[in-house]
Each structure stands twice: as structure tokens, then as C-alpha cells.
Design brief:
3 domains; 44% helix; five-stranded mixed beta sheet; Hect, E3 ligase catalytic domain fold; 20 strands; 15 helices; alpha+beta; Rossmann fold
Length: 569
């Protein structure tokens, strides 16, 4: 029997040796059982509250592909401390025919999932409350309970044989930059220009990155940004925000707490900005905020304002292209941060027209479509082999259940009381029916590529383009179209000075080349008019490629003066 071993230690146990210890005792156990170790997986200093761990993801991938028959760990909480995640792990591995064994609990059953999952969840809740209580105590002592702010450094000292934590002191070089930012802002310099000046002088921002207007201006309500950090006037504010985990993404999301729950302490030794400068900065913020909101630079609606908002990227620095004026797009890295040389601009409606024309006319050229078909078929065959492995595991389990049923019937015929094996027979029968239902429900593979796919696809995109012209269908059509595109990359053409104004070159070619990246499988799905969403088991929508061709080729949206035969890199 093959076994995969998993080990993890979290941030509440910062011992690197813990991984080696877990793997060692699991190896010893596997050897005593006579199992063959297929592979070992581990995650270092990662919380059990999330499944976004590379070692765990590799374990699940190999388990679902049946590289081993048993998953072994020190205890169930090594896999996860989240009830939902633990139950999902058990369901998926059970379906694949892979057993879970831990040194602490033994063979894992539904009972362990329910009971231990609850206990692990309570542990996380209790740990969070104790951590919060400890942080509150630090604040009451006038110490830091959070990360390191720009302008300060950590103080390490021995007190009574213990290293002190939570102490901060002013970092003179960074403090001078903080005071400069406040004085420039009070003098009327915009956050955008301040960021440009700092980047031009190659002054590193917080965490060593580039400066941006949002780093300086921040959010006044949340206390983020240089201009809103009250620590710069010697006031330590804590518990302004709370963090909750998004159950779908596993990522933390910040929420603003009521002001009654905030806690503050005066720490005059950490003051950097004089009161008069701070007051003047706050006054200017109050006067400029209404104008900023009206202009939409900060606090804009979450719905994309334009058809391709957030999708246009600079091919030189990777920053987004943002609105510069009423109808032109410009690189954020060049315009607001001063760290990019691509100063070319382009009309927003020109980008939309060229991309729509490209989606309709250029994407599925016959030669590229044939190349994609070959690559698509190879990838689908690989995915289906893994999918079939799960079904084969269910079939093998049915065979084992049937063999066990025959042995139990024989034991009854040999004189064993039926009452002693009745429960096992019933449980096996229920499990057999469950597996059979799974096999019956397994969809037959849909036809991969319709012969008229290119024509069908163009009809769909044409219909979307027409729907954009009508107010009652514009929102829905925009969302559908945006779902087909991952990024629209704008790069200066070769030989084109990136600092010249936008528009066309002397030869009539667009100065900015447009490269479109997208989920071609989703585009093909749109052409097939698929009625169901691309769920995990839906193999027909799992292949993601650069739009237009496979093998990592880019496809370019043609310019208004470019012939229809051009466009491939």
C-alpha cells in the first residue's frame, strides 16, 4: 500500500524542526505498517485556517490522481483547522478512494470530521481572542501591537533576561521623508506629484517599493496612508479595523470598527510631525476631499466605469492604464509614479473598437484555430485521465465492498449470527449505492470542438457588440465580454519613442500595439452556448490559454489602418 505523508507547522509554533519531527514519526509508523512511502509534503509557518498552501495543494492533486492509497499525518489539525475545509478534504479523498490516517486519531471517519473539526474551530476562535487580549495589553503599556510603520524602527533590548517586543523608535532618515511629505502637501503639492518626486530621487517607499499617490493620501476613515497616520503626532490608535476571512477566497478582508471600540494612547516620544503642520494637512484634506470624490479618483463605484476598466496594462512596466483626461488612457506608472518611460496615450474608444474588431474578426484564424485544436485535445486527454482515475477508484471500491459482502454472507452460512454483521452489511450496501449513483451521475464527455466553432464564436461576439449599443442590455453584455478577457497589454511599437504624444506614427501605424490575453476555453464555451457554469469537474472549460493561439503566443488587436492579414507575433 502506498502512502503520502503530510506535515505542517503554523505561525504559533515557530520551530522549523517541527516539520522534520512530524515526518520522522510518520515514516516510522508507515514502516511498521509495511506501507511504501510515495512522497512527502510539507508547509512551513502557514496557518491551518487556510487551504492556500503549496504543499497541501500538491498533496490533494496527487491524491486525486491516485498516486497513493493513504494520506498520513500527525493529527487531523495538520490538514486544516477549518470545519468546512476539513469536511471538504474528507469528502474529496473518500470519493477518490484514498483513506486518511493520523497518528493521534487513527483511521479518520465521519465522527472525527464532526467532532475534531468543531474542536479545531473552537481552538482558532480561542486563540484569536487570547491574541486580541494580549495586543490590547501592549497598547495599554504604550507599545506597538501591529506592524512597523514607515519612519520607525524596532527596538530590541534585554530586560530581565527576556527580549522586549513592541518597542519602536524614530528612524531619522525615514522621519525626514515623512515630515517632507507633510510640508509639501501643506504647501499645495499634490500626492501624485509628491510620489513622482520621491520616485525620481530613487527614495524607497514603505517596504522598499515605489511611492504612489494612494500610499501618501490613503483613507482618512481607516487611518491608512502617510497623511492619516496619527502615530506621526505621537498618538497610538489601535483596533480601528478588524479582519475577517472570506470563506470563498480564504483571504482576510478588513472591516472598520465603530469608533467606540477604538483605543488610543499618547506616545510623545514617537512624534515626527509638529501639531501646526498636522492641523494644516488635515484642513487641506477636508477642502480637497469633496473635489476628489467628484472627480472620481478615490472612492469610485465598484462597477467598472468603462467597458475595459481595470483590464488595460502597460507592456513596459506592468502598471495599469488609467483615464487621463476625458477620453484618453495613460500608464499609471508613468503618469502618477514617474517610474515608467511609456508616456504614450491612446483614446479609450479606439482601444474598445480595436479589441471588439479583433474578437470578431481575428481571434479564430483558421491556422491558429487548428493549432489550438491540437493543443486543446492533448490537454483534454491529460485532464480526463485524472478525471477517469477518480471514477476508477469508485469502481474499485464497489468491487471491494462486493467481495466483503460475499465474505459476510459466507460467515452467516457458517453459523455467525446475522445480528453481528447486520450493521456492516447495511453500511456497505448504502456506500455501494452511493458510489453507483456517483458513477451514473458522471457526465459523458461533451463534444470538444464543434466544426463550425469559429463561425458560432463570431456570431456570439457580434451579438455582444450589438447589445452594448442598447442601454437595457449594456450592463449584462459588458460583464459577459469582460469575462472573456484577462488583460489588454499596450506597448509602444518598436522604434517608437515612448515619450511622444499618442495617436498614429508617420507611417499610419498605431503607436501603441495592443496585445490581448484571455481565456480561450471560456470563449469557446460562449460559442457552444454552455448552459452550466465551469465547475471543478467540468473538463470542457478548464484549459486557459493566451487568446488567439496556444504555446504562449500573443495575439495583437489590429489598428484602424492595419491590414486584416497582420497581427500575429
Amino acid at each position: 500500500m502506498k502512502v503520502g505523508i503530510y506535515a505542517r507547522y503554523s505561525s504559533d509554533n515557530q520551530r522549523e524542526a517541527s516539520i522534520a519531527d512530524q515526518l520522522r514519526i510518520c515514516r516510522t509508523f508507515a514502516e511498521r505498517q509495511g506501507w511504501t512511502i510515495s512522497d512527502e509534503y510539507s508547509d512551513h509557518a502557514v496557518s491551518g485556517a487556510t487551504l492556500l498552501r503549496p504543499g497541501f495543494q500538491a498533496l490533494m492533486r496527487d491524491a486525486l490522481n491516485r498516486r497513493f492509497d493513504v494520506v498520513l499525518a500527525e493529527s487531523l489539525d495538520r490538514f486544516s483547522r477549518d470545519q468546512e475545509d476539513t469536511a471538504g478534504l474528507f469528502k474529496r479523498l473518500t470519493f477518490a478512494g484514498v483513506n486518511i490516517v493520523t497518528l493521534a486519531e487513527g483511521d479518520i471517519t465521519h465522527l472525527h470530521i464532526g467532532f475534531k473539526g468543531t474542536m479545531n474551530a473552537l481552538f482558532l476562535k480561542d486563540l484569536a481572542e487570547k491574541t486580541h487580549r494580549g495586543l490590547r495589553g501592549r497598547i495599554e503599556d504604550g507599545k506597538s501591537a501591529g506592524g512597523l510603520c514607515y519612519g520607525y524602527r524596532v527596538v530590541r533590548a534585554l530586560t530581565g533576561g527576556n527580549v522586549t517586543t513592541g518597542e519602536r523608535e524614530i528612524e531619522p532618515t525615514e522621519a525626514a521623508i515623512v515630515e517632507r511629505i507633510f510640508r509639501d502637501f501643506v504647501a499645495g503639492v499634490s500626492p501624485k506629484q509628491i510620489a513622482k518626486n520621491l520616485n525620481r530621487e530613487r527614495i524607497a517607499g514603505p517596504f522598499g517599493g515605489a511611492w504612489s499617490p494612494s500610499t501618501i493620501y490613503g483613507n482618512a476613515k481607516r487611518g491608512t496612508g502617510i497623511l492619516n497616520n496619527e502615530l506621526y503626532v505621537g498618538r497610538l490608535v489601535w483596533n480601528r479595523l478588524r479582519y475577517v476571512k472570506n470563506p470563498d477566497t480564504g483571504k482576510r478582508v478588513s472591516r472598520l470598527n465603530p469608533t467606540s471600540e477604538w483605543m488610543s494612547r499618547e506616545v510623545p516620544q514617537l512624534r515626527i510631525v509638529p501639531d501646526d503642520i498636522w492641523t494644516a494637512a488635515k484642513s487641506r484634506q477636508q477642502h480637497t476631499r469633496p473635489a476628489v470624490k467628484t472627480a472620481g479618483a478615490i472612492g469610485a463605484a465598484k462597477r467598472p466605469q468603462y467597458l475595459f476598466s481595470g483590464l488595460t496594462k502597460c507592456g513596459v512596466c506592468g502598471a495599469g492604464f488609467i483615464m487621463a483626461g476625458r477620453n484618453r488612457l495613460a500608464c499609471f506608472g508613468a503618469r502618477d509614479q514617474g517610474r515608467c518611460d511609456n508616456h504614450l496615450t491612446i483614446r479609450r474608444d479606439e482601444v474598445e473598437a480595436r479589441v471588439l474588431n479583433a474578437l470578431q474578426e481575428k481571434l479564430l484564424r483558421q491556422d491558429l484555430f487548428e493549432e489550438f485544436c491540437k493543443e486543446f485535445t492533448r490537454e483534454m486527454n491529460r485532464l480526463r485521465m485524472g478525471h477517469r482515475a477518480g471514477l476508477s477508484a469508485a469502481e474499485r471500491e464497489i468491487e471491494r465492498i462486493e467481495a466483503r459482502r460475499k465474505k459476510l454472507v459466507e460467515s452467516i452460512m457458517e453459523g455467525v449470527p446475522a445480528s453481528e454483521v447486520k450493521d456492516e452489511l447495511n453500511a456497505n450496501a448504502a456506500r455501494r449505492e452511493e458510489l453507483k449513483a456517483t458513477l451514473v451521475a458522471a457526465d459523458a464527455p461533451p463534444p470538444l470542438l464543434h466544426p463550425e466553432m469559429a463561425g458560432l464564436y463570431r456570431q456570439k461576439v457580434t451579438a455582444l457588440a450589438e447589445a452594448l449599443e442598447h442601454s437595457e442590455t449594456r450592463t449584462e453584455a459588458s460583464e459577459a465580454l469582460r469575462g472573456l478577457i484577462d488583460a489588454i497589454v499596450l506597448t509602444p511599437n518598436q522604434g517608437e519613442p515612448p515619450s511622444r504624444a499618442g495617436g498614429e506614427s508617420r507611417s499610419g501605424e498605431p503607436r501603441l500595439r495592443i496585445e490581448l490575453k484571455g481565456n480561450l476555453a471560456a470563449m469557446l464555451g460562449a460559442a457552444q452556448n454552455a448552459k452550466r457554469s465551469p465547475e471543478t469537474g467540468d473538463l470542457s472549460l478548464q484549459v486557459v490559454m493566451v487568446a488567439g493561439a496556444c504555446n504562449q503566443q500573443y495575439w495583437r488587436a489590429p489598428g484602424p489602418h492595419r491590414s486584416r492579414s497582420s497581427g500575429q507575433k
